[in-house]
Amino acid sequence: MVATHRLAAGAAGAAIAAVCAASLAGCATGTSGSDPGEGAYGPQKGNAAPPRKVLRLIGDGSTAFTGAQPHLPRPERLKPGQKPPQFVVFSWDGAGEDSQKLFSHFRKVARDNNATMTYFLSGVYLLPEEKRGLYRPPQHSPGRSDIGFNDEQGITDTVRQLRQAWLEGNEIGTHFNGHFCGSGGGVGEWTVQEWKDEIDQAKQFVKTWKTNTGLRNAAPLPFDYDKELIGARTPCLEGQENFMRAAGEMGFRYDSSGVNNQVWPKKKQGLWDLSLQLVPFPGHTFEQLSMDYNFMVNQSGTETQGDPAKHDYWGAQMRDGLLQGFQRAYDGNRAPLIIGNHFESWNGGAYMRAVEEVIERVCTKDEVRCVSFRQLVDWLDAQDPKTLKKLRTLGVGQAPKSGWASFLSAPPAPAPKGVPGAPAGRP
Fold first, then answer.
1. If you compute the radius of gyration of the chain from its CA atoms, what whole number of angstroms results?
2. Domain-wise residue ranges, the chain
3. What is the per-residue pLDDT across 309-340, written as a single tens digit (0 to 9) for each?
């Protein structure tokens, strides 16, 4: 069992629904080459230019197929005795661009620090308020959403950020739609079929934002969302079991809705289980979930703007906890570090400053890859299953006693044809 003082799932759901109603921020509780120092996983510096030519518009032109995503490295299998890279995933729940401009800000932070990230989009952020009736949430009346909807300017700004983020090599996942938590129709009570319906609607709002806003002359999103969408994080980390069953049947590759220690991931119900993790909580004997909301709850409760005199201290606690979690993995078992956030200004923006400092400190270090979940699962799928199984024998912060060269000395089996990392030209 893992030890933590985070809110119980039901209580957390009720609390965060109250905290985040009508907020655009969204809420939840909560590859490497042979040279490990090569910075292959980061995007190129500067803003990515839009595609020169749309190859194929999809549907009403809200999305388009424009070819392979730029800045995605080709994953390779670890060589015998090679130390794994230290992967770090920064992910954002409910990603949208509002007046705080945090989406655009952290895109720049990522570019400046050789990083790519995963943005979990809430579908209702591409649905205007006047069209709210198009959303028919499971177990709720049409047009209901615990995080509201959007307006034309907000949708325009969010689409612009999504477009540029994807072109820079970032991933666009989903945080679904109405963000219903707790009892009385929360996502933890949804059936597999209801999850499938929610996923279909989340996709639909992305694929029809032009029709729903009337912005038919705007540039499309440069990807096919049916193919782009391979993973998610559920609201309040609830409903994971039935969601994973639905997601597996719909072609998803991973889920990040669970809670785990800092160990190497494995598959669950056919999906990579890339759970949020417990990291040190400076000043406490228990560990803390690697998400801004959970730090806040354990510092100021559900009061999003607590004692101003403590804002800097609280931010430093989160920063140092994440850095300590990073360091014990980097010096230890090299398990990927999974971090979750929201675009928010809780406690004076303390957690946003903390995350930015962590990005700046870790993403430019040798042997570190700050990547999206898509890039991480591509790398995992490229590895010899026996190598991953051996990595999973290492506990939290545990480095191989005999060193990496000895621990992973056995030659890995060749990658099957079609698997990422298979040798070029393999028959």
1. 21
2. 9-27+55-65+82-407
3. 999 999 999 999 999 999 999 999 999 999 99
